[in-house]
């Protein structure tokens, strides 16, 4: 009876052993010594001990095994590139040699993946060829992406460059050894021993330099990762939220629409009003200079600073007085000058200006704007309206020396994004 019981145990163990050999992870069962196994089998608790030992070994080996495939996942990135138009960066990698998924059991499945835009022509999320290739010409795939300036709402298409390479995936998305050189991103070509695809997307300096004005330019690129081997289908979406924060330090402007490129010549519009109490009458006048301040940044600055000066000595004038002087005189004598005050209208509010004193205009990036076509710019820009009103306070005509009066009013603009 005992011998029969012993034989049943041996048979049961052999069945377990034979079944386990079908698992690659259990091939080390051959290291178990038969005498030890038989010794265990002669003990009363052998039947319960042996299955427990086998189970724990299987759990251990399964836990330490490496997965043979990794499914692609949607890829998302958000980037901001800050630079001045005069000095764009040499190159910027949006994705640098990134592999998304692999398959060691069926290497061609991921090694033949390819990438395409959502449209051939619509640049709103990127336009490029959607045609799958196999062994096409070795070059970058050119993508045209619409970028929109956030305040002016002007749009402009810039080029990006995409490429891919068949590779062997190791341990991370950035550890995939390429088997050959780069190819067009629409090229599904793979090579022996590869099981994944590297993807690379970049902006070159010549592409960044194409942005036509300063400002905050935004665009969203959306690409498909497509499976060729097996069912043809989209396996992942790649989305890049791109912001180009571009200054134009050397191209700020104080725009006077009424004068264009000509030197402005302004008349104070002096008029005489007869008065019995003032021999010769009373003189007064005013004029408005249409002015718009361009910060080289499409009015995205938080503040601007404006300084007005008549380039004359202070004499004994009040701080808010500016003057024109009689030709041939210094203007030091009050009879040889005509004084006026200046008010700037900023965002619907009057700002009293003082001679040679800097005024800071806050909240420019949310204030009123005006689209204008400035000389030298291929697209419309927006500036900050700030008309200047020059007002001559009434004075007795007899109190001034007869003659021609003239002067200069200098307007200086400063901003974080402008060169001094």
From TrEMBL:
InterPro entries per the UniProt record, alphabetical: CblD, CfaE_adhesin
Give the domain of life: Bacteria
Note the Pfam families from the entry: CblD (PF07434)
The name on file for this protein is: Pilus biogenesis initiator-like protein
| Organism name | Shimwellia blattae (strain ATCC 29907 / DSM 4481 / JCM 1650 / NBRC 105725 / CDC 9005-74)
